[in-house]
Amino acid sequence: MVMSLELLACAEMTEADRRAVAAGVSGAALMEAAGAAVARRARELWPAARRILVLAGPGANGGDGYVAARRLAERGLAVTVAALVPPERLSGDAAFMASRWSGAVTPIADADFGAADVIVDALFGAGLSRPLEGAAADAAERANASRTPILAVDVPSGLHGDLGAPLGRGPVVRAAATVTFVRPKPGHVLLPGRTLCGALTVADIGTPEAVVPSLGVATFRNRPALWSGALPRPATDGHKYRRGHALVWSGPEFMTGAARLSAFAAARVGAGAVTIAGAPAALRVHAAHVSAIMLAEAVDADGLEKLFGARRFASAVVGPGAGPGVEAAARAALDGAESAVLDADVFTAFAGRPDELAAAIRRAPARPVVLTPHEGEFARLFPDLTDGSKLDRARAAASRTGAVVALKGADTVVAAPDGRAAIADNAPPTLATAGAGDVLAGFCAGLLAQGMPAFEAAAAAVWIHGEAAAGFGPGLIADDLPHVAPAVLARLLGAPKDS
Ligand SMILES: NC(=O)C1=CN([C@@H]2O[C@H](COP(=O)(O)OP(=O)(O)OC[C@H]3O[C@@H](n4cnc5c(N)ncnc54)[C@H](OP(=O)(O)O)[C@@H]3O)[C@@H](O)[C@H]2O)[C@@H](O)CC1
Ligand SMILES: [K+]
């Protein structure tokens, strides 16, 4: 099984296959290895299965299916191939593999889906070019309705490997498990694709080692290996301000909780000092709740500017529970702090005016900025960015604004203006709870304050957020997240908390 960070877009996968062939590996050898991996996985997952139905499509995905059919039949299983097109209409390696299959082939319309113990879905993979319809749609729907476990080859048919969603309104196979090749694709990690794939495994099919690194892949799974090298490690001779002073802008007195969640989060991921800035009435509420966190008066954006003028703030958070004056506060933070995290109310304030926000961000292009919208806020801020996958949209927003964009959800995408992107798959459903976003903004700010580069800081914050929630388990409320974060950090830094 392959463990790696890269996620290959379908076009990159095609190029990987082309380069493998150019390096001397035959297409037939790749297909043989792919089909063999599918057969192995079927036997591993369902060792008691005796009757296998392989759905074979018109392209190379179908070719993999014919290989899997042969390999499973060689093991004594009763295998039937249900073909979408007659084998004589196949071409290339798929035609060759079909010619090596000597068992039963039935037209897909005649297949008995209920009579199989396992269905291998080899209808369409990376070559899906339009929604499933007609006989293909019918086959997908009958496979799903049969309740027989389905093992998908490369991707569940109908699911687009780049989008993580079906093309158009076509149906999509719901797989119990999926075997993909070389590397996962974005569609295996983005939702709903991740759910439709079931248990994903990645098979090595003999692609030479040098091929994937030669592709310049910029899309990754959000895993510690992507950013742990940049994770701040407190130095023994550290000084609290050297570990970074983060500022959190507070809303008015009846909505102070969000700012406190961000402030605790920034502190717990290691900011050396954290100050909450706000109006006196709000600060009086904060004072009843905080000890290590400092309070500073800033009635409005002018007050904030004065604070930024008086001392160095390594990062600032504006947006959580911010209320009136948030746009001016965001502008002050972008101008005055060394890095900024903009969240929540900032996106409402700049709704439909992303270019004005971008202009404010680009006034100091060297200053790292992270935007952390959820889908609703993203849609308000960028009403025209509706095309493509979540990955495409986050990338477009990052490139347009010059900020790192963390487009939140159960598959949070962190995208950088330079094109890098990371997709998270570690957030448990319990993380969908009030205030969790405020904590995420604080985690970002705390890591930025310690000098972590923005893309890495945002990706690390998202991952830590997910791990903290998963580690806490049921009953999670946002207040718990900052408290659990140190245990996650201890694991990342390799230091047991009690040593
Ligand atoms: N060396 C390699 O490359 C290796 C590749 N491997 C395997 O190859 C797979 C990619 O193969 P592929 O490119 O042939 O595409 P695939 O998904 O089989 O389908 C293309 C065919 O389907 C058709 N079609 C598309 N959508 C349709 C629809 N809705 N309804 C009906 N028809 C539709 C499309 O028609 P067209 O768009 O041309 O009209 C074309 O005829 C990849 O996923 C992996 O499993 C492995 O063996 C490892 C080595
Ligand atoms: K498939």
From TrEMBL:
Source organism: Methylopila jiangsuensis
The gene is nnrE
Name listed for the protein in its UniProt record: Bifunctional NAD(P)H-hydrate repair enzyme
Q: Tell me its EC number(s), please.
A: 4.2.1.136, 5.1.99.6
Describe the reaction catalysed, as an equation.
(6R)-NADPHX = (6S)-NADPHX; (6R)-NADHX = (6S)-NADHX; (6S)-NADHX + ADP = AMP + phosphate + NADH + H(+); (6S)-NADPHX + ADP = AMP + phosphate + NADPH + H(+)
Protein residues bound to (6S)-NADPHX: 60-64, 125-131, 154, 258, 321, 374, 438
State how it assembles: Homotetramer.
Q: Which GO terms describe its molecular function?
A: ADP-dependent NAD(P)H-hydrate dehydratase activity; ATP binding; metal ion binding; NAD(P)HX epimerase activity
Domain of life (superkingdom) = Bacteria
Name its GO BP terms in alphabetical order.
Answer: metabolite repair; nicotinamide nucleotide metabolic process
